[in-house]
């Protein structure tokens, strides 16, 4: 039963880019390196940002499993909710936080996820 539920969970690919919005920051999109981190983070892994400046994150989510690639425009996928009486569309939360200060910086609930989605999140 648990194995069946785990096999139904989506396999996703995530790409994140950041762009400065204020006049003192770079206007070009910088790709964020997504790698599992263990231990101290090396300086080459950090992106240079200016304190007090506004930035926009572009989060691109693509599904790798077959149930999302049926090709229908506007089609969404049902969430795994076996005890809920009606079908529900799959959706996610994008959470940006400062781990050292234990602060929430930005929170966004996505709508229905499709084969490929782009979401923008603004933060300071």
Describe the structure.
InterPro entries: C2_domain_sf, Ig_E-set. The chain is mainly beta. It has a domain at 22-31 and 52-124: Immunoglobulin-like (Sandwich). It has 1 helix and 6 strands. It has one helix at 2-8, and strands spanning 12-20, 30-32, 55-63, 93-98, 103-109, 116-123. It has a 4-stranded antiparallel β-sheet, with no helix packed on it. The chain has a two-stranded antiparallel ribbon with strand order 4-5. A hairpin with a 4-residue loop joins β4 and β5. The model has no long low-confidence stretch (mean pLDDT 77).
Summarize the structure.
By secondary structure, the chain is mostly beta strands. The chain has one helix spanning 2-8; strands at 12-20, 30-32, 55-63, 93-98, 103-109, 116-123.
Structure classification:
mainly beta
CATH class of the domain at 22-31 and 52-124: Mainly Beta
Shape: elongated
User: What oligomerization state is this entry in?
Assistant: single chain
As laid out across the biggest beta sheet, the strand order is: 2-1-3-6
Give the number of DSSP strands.
6
Which percent range fits the helix content? under 10%
Looking at the structure, the CATH topology of the domain at 22-31 and 52-124 is Immunoglobulin-like
* Helix-strand string: HEEEEEE
Report how far apart the termini are.
44 Å
CATH architecture of the domain at 22-31 and 52-124: Sandwich
Largest sheet report: 4 strands, antiparallel
% residues in beta strands: 25-35%
Mean pLDDT equals 77
Cα Rg = 17 Å
InterPro entries: C2_domain_sf (IPR035892), Ig_E-set (IPR014756)
């Amino acid at each position: 039963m648990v194995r069946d539920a785990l096999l139904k969970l989506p396999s996703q690919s995530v790409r994140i880019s950041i762009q400065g919005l204020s006049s003192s920051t770079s206007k070009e999109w910088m790709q964020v390196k997504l790698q599992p981190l263990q231990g101290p983070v090396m300086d080459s892994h950090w992106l240079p940002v200016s304190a007090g400046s506004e930035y926009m994150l572009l989060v691109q989510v693509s599904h790798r499993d077959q149930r999302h690639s049926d090709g229908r425009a506007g089609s969404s996928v049902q969430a795994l909710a076996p005890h809920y009486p009606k079908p529900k569309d799959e959706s996610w939360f994008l959470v940006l936080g400062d781990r050292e200060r234990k602060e929430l910086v930005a929170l966004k609930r996505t709508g229905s996820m499709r084969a490929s989605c782009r979401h923008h999140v603004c933060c300071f």
